[in-house]
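Propose amino acids for all 264 sites.
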């Protein structure tokens, strides 16, 4: 696979292309045996981090697609309800590729070739059949739950003191795994009749600004006999810093199609 194809998965594949990739991961959300005597929890109130900004100065990205693995350095900046900016820096900290996500658009930028592709989330819904939005990606990357879903219901699991919560949005089924410390440790999304699946597992929780947040994100996506897995490791994390980053000015860049900027 061409390096730019890998980049597509790094930037957005794990979040918006669940109908074109498939995962071979064997990690399970719950025990393999079903629990028939489920106990209902009172309320769904996991202790998720609530920060206005995330500035991840160093983010290690390890991606595996069809048994091929690539590792690159990146940085990540998030402003709540405004911007997610992922910068790929494969050599000497020099930005070569970038993805800017706003509530209305996704922009992929090839800095070396001065080219960019921009579109709305509707484009990916039509192309891949996955109705996912900025708020969903923001929730995944900040260890939060998805919004605009049904009220989650709970089933107590005896193994590992894990509570599984289930919610839905249209054809999307959402499963959350909550630890005994009341932390969100896994989100799994199943979409449509073909059971396209996206999963994010959260690990290595660390205290930041008097709240606990994961420093390692394990993402996997599956559908249509293809697979991809991605690990994000956050380092040098600062929150609530009052930063106001803006999307890259592309006025001097050439606008191209998705296939031109990320051929696959």
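Proposal:
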């Amino acid at each position: 696979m061409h390096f730019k194809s890998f980049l597509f998965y790094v930037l957005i594949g794990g979040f918006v292309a669940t109908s074109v990739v498939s995962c071979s991961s064997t990690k399970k959300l719950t025990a393999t045996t079903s629990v028939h005597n489920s106990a209902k929890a009172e309320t769904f109130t996991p202790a998720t981090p609530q920060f206005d900004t995330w500035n991840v100065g160093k983010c290690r990205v390890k991606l595996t697609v069809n048994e091929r693995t690539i590792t690159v350095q990146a940085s990540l900046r998030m402003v709540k309800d405004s911007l997610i900016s992922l910068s790929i820096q494969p050599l000497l900290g020099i930005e070569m590729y970038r993805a800017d996500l706003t509530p209305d658009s996704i922009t992929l930028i090839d800095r070396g070739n001065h080219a960019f592709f921009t579109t709305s989330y509707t484009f990916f819904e039509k192309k891949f059949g996955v109705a996912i939005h900025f708020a969903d990606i923001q929730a995944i990357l900040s260890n939060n739950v998805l919004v605009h879903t049904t009220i989650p219901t709970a089933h107590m699991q005896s193994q590992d003191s894990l509570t599984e919560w289930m919610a839905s949005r249209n054809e999307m089924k959402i499963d959350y795994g909550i630890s005994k410390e009341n932390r969100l440790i896994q989100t799994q999304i199943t979409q449509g009749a073909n059971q396209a699946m996206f999963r994010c597992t959260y690990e290595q929780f660390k205290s930041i600004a008097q709240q606990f947040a994961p420093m390692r994100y394990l993402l996997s996506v599956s559908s249509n006999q293809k697979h991809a897995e991605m690990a994000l490791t956050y380092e040098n994390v600062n929150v609530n810093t009052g930063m106001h980053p803006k999307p890259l000015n592309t006025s001097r860049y050439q606008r191209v199609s998705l296939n031109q900027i990320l051929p696959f």
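Helices lie at 3-16, 121-128, 134-141, 258-261. The two ends are 8 Å apart (CA to CA).
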